[in-house]
Every structure is written in structure tokens, then in C-alpha cells.
Design a protein that fits this description.
The complex is a heterotrimer of chains A (328), B (307) and C (258). Chain B is mostly helical. Chain B is 72% helix and 1% strand. Chain C is of the alpha/beta class. The chains are: A mainly alpha (328), B mainly alpha (307), C alpha/beta (258). The interface between B and C is small, with 2 and 5 residues.
Chain lengths: 328, 307, 258
């Protein structure tokens, strides 16, 4: 037993909870009176969990260093909005056979479409970046992220620098945390298998991994594609939460935000990174009044952390699947 | 033809700035094998230092000739940047000397953000005007070309600085120590080179050049802000990779080439069918192309990992 | 005898340095061959050529009759060549067991999707891989430490773990790069016995680089000697011991070398 049932339970829980906290005042359930502000933070936290755990498979488990996560997020956001906003009417008409579920069906299609486009972008970034390590890779992924952003900025069809408004706000707490559960499950399931030990082997010693018949190229590209897929999902959720996206929301600094979550949580620790994502989202909200001090404090924290505790604040915490018993 | 020459001169003066920043990346990479992400932000601090020095000193040095005053500011900025670079190295990077490169890289990103947001806190987020140190005047008698004296001075002073750098690296004891360290740190320290001092000196030297680049950049574009270092910093890094990271001539040539290509792409955007908005993507496309086809750059050597 | 590995006039240059020069050499199926030579003679470079870390400048390397000189390291391992490293290269953040498990990747049936779906086939395969890994560890006396981080092992145990990890790829040819380095004489003898045992049990051909002449002479059927990148002698241990060039080039230095 274990993993799969655990995951199903988590998804179910996400939906039930979301049913309770729909946030619509007319909902019958008393808990539904959940404050809009709080609800938003919970959803944002879920999106950040998706972003951080998916970056973790690239930066943590596979030992690459990507600084372009915001780029993939942007692809997912714009890609999904292309279905629901730009071509919304046509798409809804095409899905009219679903009856009352057409709206929800379109949303799912949009999420998957955005994620698939992001995964393609991940493939495009992963392939040429393979020969590079460490700091070089960081700069190239950063460059790719910036190119993606500049392309959106210069494409009038998606609003150019002004951005895209009027995206239907369909992201709910349930959807978000179901995706988060799916993401955590996928990353943990992948890593905790004989197949997935390959990611860690590539991280620890690429030359030895190759000598053991592990193809580092394949693992790195896989990590990039999986990471980008979930970043795309996160971007799509974000677009349908806020209802407005612009290239300015997906700059290098957004990537850095996610990197900080991964580092604080401890690279390679799925649970730690998920907690760090939630923690940082909440902290960000608490510090909203002190916006200008927030980033100064974060960067100082990053430096001090690297000098004193490079494994991260939460690093070394238990993994999602316990390895002690020996059975997967 | 005139149009092309015009773009070329604009590109060269921008490229000179990239070259000056790129030298810092390349030198630090030479001795420590790591990319100092915060280098672009030292450049930004240099621009603000120039602004404040200019404002404070102007009333006190009324009688000075303009060129002497500008030279003094340039010198002060270079010294200030060297101090900042050395300080950053001592506080943030030195404790990590034996740590994995990724740890150092993340620290460098941290330092970069710290400088940017501290800058924002102190200088404000809005762009500020940079005082004109020299009166800008077009140089006459060049046919239809619009070339300002500032562009020419930037090119000339950059050339002079590069010659100084060449002298320091090739002719002085410190330069010899730098070269020894970049070849083999352990052997260098066994031969009596004080690695710690040499590394700090290298950071200082690279930062001083970035400071000079900042004064030139600010004089050419006249607006400065706390995030102005991000893009030129990254582009200069691309220039360093283009020239072959670790190679000083490579960084100079890479900087000039990048500046020219970028200017030409924007200048001929209609001919090329590339909207001018893609200006900032040019460098990254070049970076990806080099890394795909000639990762060692124009002047670099390929290094193979010892197995 | 059936030739497993064949090298023909293999040469590699690094800039001006000719690290390996026109080496002809072969290993037959099930053979235990020693490769000796002074420091810097090109033994590890030869290993790196055979395993695809370096590409030969000229000459040909064939494994099972197929040219492998330009193949990638992982593909060559896939064909049945495994190696250990002179400067230990374990997967340092993994446990002892996981180091071995990672090397089972090559013959894994359930890949990416299997790991996600975690069905019955996946679970039974994971189970059997784990059992086989433990069995291999047992042979080398490492089963007790299976869940310990590999970094916590002693130097000698790390070398043994490298051999186990290489065996997990199910090789036909095993290249051992100074597996007994840093061990005391008793440990060395024990390790050589273990190498002989695994060679027979798994029907492997073994190519062994080792500094200790006594050790090599004791177990190898055939020995090749490198000096300055050239093969200067080849033959049975007895022949090598009598060879004048070997004595001049290598045995004479061995005294100061050790």
C-alpha cells in the first residue's frame, strides 16, 4: 500500500476542503465564510508549493541549477489564458456537449494545455543546456526565462507589455491543492524508485553515473520537462486566480523567489521545500507593509544561510516515502 | 554606409562598457572559478557613487577644469567600487572557499539582491539623473555622423584602462601571482603566493573597472536606478563567455562585439524583421548559440575534468 | 579463445602530450588480466578510453566485435563494460544500498511511468532489485551497512562498494582501477581472493590495474605492462618477471615507488 492510496486521499481531501471553503458567501456551509483574503493566501501558498517542489526536482534532486522557473510559469499562464480568455467563446462552444460542466472542462483543458506548452519549453531549454553545469546553467536558464518574457512582451496578440486581463477566475482552493498534492506525489514517486535514483546519481557524480550506464542527458531533460510541466500548471492556476497576467509578473525575481523556497526548504527534501513554500508565502503577506525591507531581509537570510547552514533551514527532514522499511 | 558607421560607433561605446564589466567576471572566474553574480550590482553602486561624488564635490572644486574634475570623480568611483568588491569578497565569499560551487553561486545571488534592495531602500526605486561631468558636444567634421565627445572619451579612456590592466597583469608581481593562482591555486600557495590577498586584489581590480564602466554608462545614458546593474551585468557576463571566460583579451573583444551586435540589431530592426523590443534578448540568444557551438568561447581553452 | 575486448593501435593525445600510444591489447572472455606500469604510464587513461570517458585520437577499440571508440560512456556500460574509479567516485549523498540500486538502472523494465504508477510489476521489480543488491553486498561483506550513508564507510569498504556497484550493471568485462589501494597486505590478499571468486561466479573477464606486483602476479593469468603510454611487454606472470625491459622500467622503480 502506501504511496498511491496516500495520494488519492490527499487529492480527495483537497477537494473536500475546497468544497467546504468555496469562499462564495451564498454557500450553505458555515465554514464557507472563510475570509477572501485568507483564502487567497491559502491558494497562493498552494501555487508556491507546486512551483517550489517542481523546481526542486531540477535544482535539488538532479543537482542542476535553473533560474528560469518564472519563464515556464509564464508559458503556462499565457498558454492557459489562450484557451479561456483569448479564444474563450470558441472553446466553450466546442465543449458545449459537456453541458453544465463545460466551464470546468475548459478550465481543466486550459490547465493541461498550459502545462504541456511549458513542458515543451522545458524540453527546448533542457536540450541545449545539458553540457553546462552549475553557474553556466544558471545563467543560461535565466537567459531563457528572460527571452520567454521578452517574447510575450512583444507579442500584441497576448497584450504585449500591457498584459492580459479578464481571465475567468476559476482557480479554487481545491484545484490548487489537488495540483499541489499531485506534484508532491509525482516528484516523490519518481525520486523514490530505482529509476529515480538516477536523478540523485547524476547529481552526486555525473561521470560515475555514466559509468554505471545511467544516461545523464536523459535524466536532466526529464527533470527539466517535469519541472516545467508543473511550473506551467502553477502559472495556469495563478492566471486564473488573479485574472490578470503581464510579462512583468514573470521576471527573474520571481524565479529567485522560488529558488529561495527550495534553498530554505533544503535542496532535495520534498517535504522541507513544501513547508518552506507555505511558510514564505505567509511571511510575504505578513511583511507586505514592510515591502522594501522584505527583500533586504531575504537576501541577508540567503547569504547567512549559505555560510552557516547550506543544507537549508529544513534540510534533512524526512522524505515523503520512508526508506527505512526497504520496500517502496 | 554612414548609417552603419553611426551604429558601429554607438555600438563600440556601449561595448566598451560591457568590456569593462566583463573583465571583472573573467578575472574572478580565473582565480576562483565562479561567476560573481553581484558584479553587475557593484556597477550600479558605482553609478550612484559617481552621482553623489559629483554633487558633493562640485561646489568645492569650482575652479577646476572640467576634464580634471571628471577624472577625479572617475578615480574616486573606481576606488569606492574596489573597496566594495573587496569587502563583499571578504564577508560573503571568503568563508565559503572550500564549499561547493553551488553554495557560492547562491551566496552571490544573495549579495546581488542585497545590493539591489539596499540600493532601493537608500536611493529610492525611481530613476535618478546622473550629473553631466563633461559638457556634451557633437564632434564636427564627420560628415553626417553624430558622434559626441563623450563617446570618444569613453572609448579612449577605456583603451587607456585596458593598457593599465595589461601592465598590471603581465608586468607586476601581483599580476604574476594572479596568473599563477589561476593556473593552480595549490601550487601558487606553495610557491609563496598569498592566495587570500591575491583574490581580494582581483575582486578589487575587477570592481574598479566595473566602477569606471558605471561612470561611462551613466554619462552616456544619464539615468541611473538600483536595478540598472542587472541587465548590463548579465550582458557583460555573456561578453565574457563569448570571449572565452578566463581570458582577458577575450572579455574585451567579447564586450565590443556584443555592444556592436546589440546596437546593430536594434538599428536595423526593420531590415532584420526583429522588433526593437527584443534588444535585451539578443545577448541571451548569443549566449545560447556560443554555448551550443563553441562553449570555450573565442579565446578560451577547453578544460576536461580529470577522471 | 573468444576475444571480448580488442584494442588496435590505440592512441590518444592531449594537446602535445601523447598519453597512450599505439597500444595493441585484448582481453578474452572469462580472463583475469593485469595491467601494470609506473605512475603516469597511462593505465587510467586506457581505462578512460575503453569506457568512453575519452575518445581515442586514432586506433580502434572493439567490444564484442563492435567499435566502441566513439560511443558514450553509458552506452558502453550498457554493452557490458563496468569499472571502478581510482579516486573513489561513489554517489556520496546516497546510502550504501542506494549506490548499488542506482546501478541497476541499466536493466530496469519499469521506467518513468512505472515509478509514477507504482503498480504490481513495478513493486515486484523494486523488491527483486533490492534483494539482488543486498546479495551482492553480502558477498563483499557490506550487507550490514546497507542503510548507512556511503560516506561513513572506511576507505577499503568504499573501494569494495565501488566493485559491488559495478557488478550491479551485470558486466561481462570488469575494469578495476587500483581496487586495493590504501589497503594493508592482509586486506589486499583477501580482496584479490574476492575478485577471483566473483570473476568465476559471474563468469566475468577482469582487467586489473594494480601497483602491488605481488598481488597482480598472484592472481592474473596474463599481464600487460605500460610505460610512457606504450605497451612494453605482455605475457604470463612468469614471463613478465623475467622480462628485462620490465625489470628496468618498472621493478627497479617499484622499490622507491612504494
Amino acid at each position: 500500500m502506501g504511496a498511491r492510496s496516500g495520494f488519492l486521499a490527499a487529492v480527495l481531501a483537497a477537494f473536500v476542503i475546497s468544497g467546504l471553503f468555496t469562499g462564495h458567501p451564498e454557500a450553505a456551509w458555515p465554514l464557507a465564510q472563510l475570509d477572501d483574503y485568507l483564502l487567497n493566501i491559502l491558494i497562493l501558498a498552494g501555487i508556491n508549493v507546486v512551483l517550489a517542489t517542481s523546481l526542486n526536482i531540477v535544482n535539488g534532486h538532479t543537482g542542476q541549477f535553473s533560474l528560469g522557473h518564472a519563464g515556464f510559469m509564464a508559458v503556462g499562464a499565457y498558454g492557459s489564458a489562450a484557451l479561456t480568455q483569448i479564444n474563450g467563446k470558441a472553446c466553450l462552444a466546442a465543449l458545449s456537449f459537456l453541458g453544465p460542466c463545460a466551464q470546468g472542462g475548459l478550465f481543466v483543458c486550459a490547465l493541461l494545455f498550459g502545462a504541456a506548452l511549458a513542458a515543451l519549453a522545458g524540453l527546448a531549454v533542457g536540450l541545449p543546456s545539458l553540457r553546462l553545469r552549475g553557474d553556466y546553467l544558471a545563467i543560461v536558464t535565466l537567459g531563457f526565462g528572460e527571452i520567454i518574457r521578452v517574447v510575450f512582451q512583444n507579442t500584441e496578440a497576448v497584450g504585449g507589455a500591457r498584459g492580459l486581463t479578464g481571465i475567468p477566475p476559476q482557480t479554487t482552493l481545491g484545484w490548487t491543492w489537488a495540483v499541489a498534492a499531485l506534484c508532491i506525489y509525482c516528484v516523490s514517486a519518481l525520486v523514490n524508485s530505482t529509476y529515480g535514483r538516477g536523478f540523485l546519481a547524476v547529481r552526486d557524480d555525473e561521470i560515475a553515473a555514466e559509468a554505471m550506464g545511467i544516461n545523464p542527458t536523459r535524466y536532466k531533460v526529464t527533470a527539466f520537462v517535469v519541472g516545467a510541466f508543473f511550473a506551467g500548471l502553477a502559472g495556469a492556476l495563478y492566471a486564473h486566480l488573479i485574472g490578470y497576467i503581464s510579462p512583468e509578473g514573470f521576471t527573474f525575481l520571481k524565479s529567485v523567489d522560488v529558488v529561495v523556497m527550495v534553498i530554505l526548504g533544503g535542496m532535495g527534501s520534498t517535504v522541507g521545500v513544501a513547508f518552506a513554500a507555505v511558510g514564505l508565502t505567509v511571511l510575504n503577506e505578513l511583511l507586505r507593509q514592510a515591502e522594501q525591507y522584505r527583500m533586504v531581509a531575504f537576501s541577508l537570510l540567503l547569504i547567512v544561510l549559505m555560510i552557516t547552514r547550506p543544507q537549508g533551514l529544513l534540510g534533512g527532514m524526512g522524505r515523503f516515502f520512508s526508506r527505512k522499511g526497504g520496500n517502496p | 554606409m554612414n548609417e552603419f558607421l553611426q551604429q558601429l560607433i554607438n555600438g563600440l561605446s556601449l561595448g566598451a562598457v560591457y568590456a569593462l564589466i566583463a573583465l571583472g567576471y573573467t578575472m574572478v572566474y580565473g582565480v576562483l572559478r565562479f561567476i560573481n553574480f553581484a558584479h553587475g550590482d557593484v556597477f550600479m553602486v558605482g553609478a550612484f557613487a559617481g552621482m553623489y561624488f559629483g554633487r558633493w564635490l562640485k561646489p568645492h572644486l569650482v575652479g577646476w577644469p572640467e576634464w580634471l574634475f571628471a577624472g577625479l570623480i572617475l578615480l574616486l568611483v573606481m576606488v569606492a567600487c574596489a573597496a566594495l568588491g573587496g569587502l563583499v569578497e571578504r564577508l560573503a565569499y571568503k568563508p565559503l572557499r572550500e564549499k561547493p560551487r553551488l553554495t557560492v553561486l547562491i551566496t552571490a545571488i544573495g549579495v546581488s539582491l542585497l545590493l539591489e534592495y539596499t540600493g532601493q531602500l537608500i536611493f529610492g526605486a525611481a530613476p535618478r539623473g546622473f550629473p553631466s561631468l563633461l559638457t556634451s558636444a557633437p564632434i564636427a567634421g564627420l560628415g553626417g555622423l553624430h558622434v559626441s565627445n563623450i563617446q570618444m572619451i569613453v572609448l579612449g579612456v577605456t583603451a587607456a584602462l585596458l593598457m593599465c590592466l595589461h601592465y598590471i597583469v603581465m608586468r607586476t608581481r601581483m599580476g604574476l601571482a594572479m596568473r599563477a593562482l589561476s593556473l593552480n591555486p595549490t601550487a601558487a600557495s606553495l610557491m609563496g603566493v598569498n592566495n587570500s590577498v591575491v583574490i581580494s586584489f582581483t575582486f578589487g581590480l575587477g570592481s574598479a573597472l566595473a566602477g569606471a564602466g558605471a561612470v561611462f554608462y551613466a554619462s552616456l545614458y544619464q539615468a541611473i536606478d538600483p536595478f540598472m546593474g542587472v541587465l548590463p551585468g548579465m550582458k557583460a557576463f555573456v561578453a565574457a563567455v563569448l570571449g572565452g571566460i578566463g581570458s582577458l583579451p577575450g572579455a574585451m573583444v567579447g564586450g565590443l562585439i556584443l555592444g556592436v551586435i546589440e546596437t546593430l540589431v536594434v538599428g536595423y530592426s526593420q531590415v532584420l524583421g526583429v522588433p526593437p523590443g527584443y534588444r535585451d534578448a539578443v545577448a541571451f540568444v548569443i549566449l545560447i548559440l556560443i554555448l551550443l557551438f563553441k562553449p570555450s568561447g573565442l579565446f578560451g581553452k577547453t578544460l576536461k575534468e580529470k577522471v | 579463445m573468444n576475444r571480448l575486448l580488442e584494442l588496435e593501435k590505440v592512441t590518444v593525445r592531449f594537446g602535445g602530450l601523447v598519453a597512450v600510444s599505439e597500444v595493441d591489447f585484448h582481453v578474452a572472455d572469462g580472463e583475469l588480466v593485469g595491467l601494470i606500469g609506473p605512475n603516469g604510464a597511462g593505465k587510467t587513461t586506457l581505462f578512460n578510453l575503453i569506457t568512453g570517458v575519452y575518445t581515442p585520437t586514432s586506433g580502434s577499440i572493439r567490444f564484442l566485435g563492435q567499435e566502441v571508440g566513439h560511443m558514450s560512456s553509458s552506452d558502453i556500460t550498457g554493452m557490458g563494460v563496468a569499472r571502478t574509479f581510482q579516486n573513489i567516485r561513489l554517489f556520496s549523498s546516497l546510502s550504501v544500498l542506494d549506490n548499488v540500486v542506482a546501478a541497476f538502472n541499466l536493466h530496469l523494465k519499469s521506467g518513468f511511468l512505472g515509478a509514477l504508477w507504482r503498480g504490481n510489476a513495478f513493486r515486484s521489480e523494486e523488491q527483486s532489485i533490492r534483494e539482488e543488491a543486498v546479495r551482492l553486498l553480502e558477498i563483499f561483506g557490506l550487507a550490514e551497512t546497507a542503510h548507512a550513508p556511503c560516506r561513513s564507510l572506511s576507505y577499503g569498504d568504499q573501494r569494495r562498494l565501488e566493485i559491488v556497484r559495478a557488478l550491479a550493471t551485470r558486466p561481462r568485462l570488469l575494469l578495476l582501477d587500483e581496487p586495493a589501494a590504501g589497503m594493508n597486505p592482509t586486506e589486499k590478499v583477501e580482496l584479490m581472493r574476492l575478485i577471483q571468486f566473483t570473476q568465476e561466479r559471474f563468469g566475468l573477464a577482469v582487467l586489473l590495474v594494480e601497483h602491488d606486483m605481488k598481488v597482480v602476479m598472484g592472481i592474473c593469468q596474463r599481464i600487460a605492462v605500460l610505460e610512457y603510454g606504450r605497451k612494453i611487454a605482455e605475457g604470463t606472470p612468469a614471463e613478465i618477471q623475467r622480462d628485462k625491459r620490465v625489470i628496468a622500467a618498472y621493478l627497479g622503480e617499484e622499490v622507491t615507488d612504494a
